[in-house]
Amino acid sequence: MRPSGRSTDQLREITLETHVNKYAEGSCLARFGDTHVLCTASVDPGVPGWLRNSGRGWVTAEYGMLPRATDGRTDREAARGRQSGRTQEIQRLIGRSLRAVTDMSAFGERQIRLDCDVLQADGGTRTAAITGAYVALYIAFEHLRRLGVVEKVPLSEEVAAVSCGLFRGIPVLDLDYAEDSEAGADANFVMTASGGIVEIQGTAEDVPFTREAFDHLMELAESGIQRLTEVQRAALGELGGAA
């Protein structure tokens, strides 16, 4: 039924490759099928002005797509002189998602910048970015732990994201572009390993959908998040996953 041939509850092939950037304190290349997002975490001294002298740190994110990430070239947003509303919304979502599991009081007045750059897009770029950014952030914190800046990695648990939608009336997990472009409804779920909800973005693209349909999407998302957090733990390997 699905263009990819996947079952309704099947994720795309997911890989999270760590240490792909030699300069960043943390890095991860997240592949959700044909969607590839490079996530780096950079530790900067100092914090935004409104946090100075608070003793607290900050985690923020930037998001962008390369010109040929899609089937046709798009101009760089820098060339257009401003970021699109979509870009701003996604990078704020990434930042909120990672801050939800980070102890901001544990690493002093430092800022960690997460850069999520879409190398290739086939649907679900924001969910891949959040899932990969967690891994990059963990590695950056582990770097600070080795330097003696923090006693332990200040992350309470894994956080990941996945899309679900109604494709030809059927609830399906992890939409690729062919499905997303035809979906009657689609939603992005950001959740923790323990099942905590960070954010849900859901939209009817055709007619309003029912509570029953939403419950099906939620069940698919919960199972998908569990599998994604397992992949995150495996990717971190000897680093041990969440502290």
Automatic annotation (TrEMBL):
<feature type="domain" description="Exoribonuclease phosphorolytic">
    <location>
        <begin position="10"/>
        <end position="140"/>
    </location>
</feature>
<dbReference type="Pfam" id="PF03725">
    <property type="entry name" value="RNase_PH_C"/>
</dbReference>
<keyword id="KW-0819">tRNA processing</keyword>
<feature type="binding site">
    <location>
        <begin position="124"/>
        <end position="126"/>
    </location>
    <ligand>
        <name>phosphate</name>
    </ligand>
</feature>
<dbReference type="InterPro" id="IPR027408">
    <property type="entry name" value="PNPase/RNase_PH_dom_sf"/>
</dbReference>
<dbReference type="InterPro" id="IPR002381">
    <property type="entry name" value="RNase_PH_bac-type"/>
</dbReference>
<keyword id="KW-0548">Nucleotidyltransferase</keyword>
<dbReference type="Pfam" id="PF01138">
    <property type="entry name" value="RNase_PH"/>
</dbReference>
<keyword id="KW-0808">Transferase</keyword>
<dbReference type="InterPro" id="IPR015847">
    <property type="entry name" value="ExoRNase_PH_dom2"/>
</dbReference>
<feature type="domain" description="Exoribonuclease phosphorolytic">
    <location>
        <begin position="159"/>
        <end position="223"/>
    </location>
</feature>
<comment type="similarity">
    <text>Belongs to the RNase PH family.</text>
</comment>
<feature type="binding site">
    <location>
        <position position="86"/>
    </location>
    <ligand>
        <name>phosphate</name>
    </ligand>
</feature>
<keyword id="KW-0694">RNA-binding</keyword>
<dbReference type="InterPro" id="IPR036345">
    <property type="entry name" value="ExoRNase_PH_dom2_sf"/>
</dbReference>
<keyword id="KW-0698">rRNA processing</keyword>
<protein>
    <recommendedName>
        <fullName>Ribonuclease PH</fullName>
        <ecNumber>2.7.7.56</ecNumber>
    </recommendedName>
</protein>
<dbReference type="GO" id="GO:0009022">
    <property type="term" value="F:tRNA nucleotidyltransferase activity"/>
</dbReference>
<comment type="subunit">
    <text>Homohexameric ring arranged as a trimer of dimers.</text>
</comment>
<keyword id="KW-0820">tRNA-binding</keyword>
<dbReference type="InterPro" id="IPR020568">
    <property type="entry name" value="Ribosomal_Su5_D2-typ_SF"/>
</dbReference>
<dbReference type="InterPro" id="IPR018336">
    <property type="entry name" value="RNase_PH_CS"/>
</dbReference>
<comment type="function">
    <text>Phosphorolytic 3'-5' exoribonuclease that plays an important role in tRNA 3'-end maturation. Removes nucleotide residues following the 3'-CCA terminus of tRNAs; can also add nucleotides to the ends of RNA molecules by using nucleoside diphosphates as substrates, but this may not be physiologically important. Probably plays a role in initiation of 16S rRNA degradation (leading to ribosome degradation) during starvation.</text>
</comment>
<dbReference type="InterPro" id="IPR001247">
    <property type="entry name" value="ExoRNase_PH_dom1"/>
</dbReference>
<dbReference type="InterPro" id="IPR050080">
    <property type="entry name" value="RNase_PH"/>
</dbReference>
